[in-house]
């Protein structure tokens, strides 16, 4: 997975494809490996983090029927945390666009999802003056 940091888009695409391919035969193993990699590399630049997250999404979508319930629950939580972190990182440069997107998740009369509130809070902390 370290090759996701390669600047060549073809290499990045090959890593994505390899993760997806391996995820077809061993989805839970790949999801756990991706999760562990993201945890160990919490400073990984967001474009590279996105490659791994997209691969995780594809593996989950293609294997949802065969995933163990506990794996799915854990992956969803970790995936949401990673996605929130990506939004916060992007928000350090493009705060208006990210805030616009996050605010669309606030609907009148509906309690927002935990990670929406967390993302909103982390955006405000990271961009506080």
Automatic annotation (TrEMBL):
Pfam families, per database record: HEAT_MROH2B_1st
InterPro entries: Maestro_heat-like_prot, MROH2B-like_N_HEAT
One annotated Gene Ontology cellular component of this protein: cytoplasm
Domain MROH2B-like N-terminal HEAT-repeats: 19-127
Protein name (database record): MROH1 protein
Protein's organism: Asarcornis scutulata
């Amino acid at each position: 997975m370290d090759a996701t940091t390669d600047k060549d888009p073809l290499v990045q695409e090959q890593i994505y494809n390899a993760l997806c391919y391996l995820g077809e035969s061993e989805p839970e193993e790949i999801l756990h490996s991706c999760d562990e990699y993201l945890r160990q590399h919490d400073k990984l630049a967001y474009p590279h983090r996105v490659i791994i997250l997209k691969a995780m999404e594809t593996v989950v979508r293609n294997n949802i029927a065969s995933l163990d319930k506990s794996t799915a629950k854990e992956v969803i939580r970790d995936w949401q945390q990673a996605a929130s972190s990506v939004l916060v990182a992007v928000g350090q440069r493009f705060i208006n666009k990210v805030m616009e997107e996050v605010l669309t998740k606030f609907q009148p009369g509906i309690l927002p999802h935990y990670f929406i509130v967390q993302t909103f809070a982390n955006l405000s902390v990271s961009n506080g003056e």
